Amino acid sequence: MRVLRGALTHGRTALAAFTGAPKSDASDVVERALAAVESDAPEVLTDEATPRAKAALSHPPAV
User: Fold this and answer.
1) For the chain, domain boundaries
2) What is the pTM of this model?
């Protein structure tokens, strides 16, 4: 069994409708996820904003 970890900042859903941030198209998300599966990657970051968001989460909080 394989597990693929995925991350998405904002998709075109009702949940993300509150924000004016760019939304990911579902076909782009699926395309990137399939490419990750085919390349045996452990993780897929499904849009351009997700790597920045993930990097920001790994920094210590500013005090």
Assistant:
1) 5-57
2) 0.69
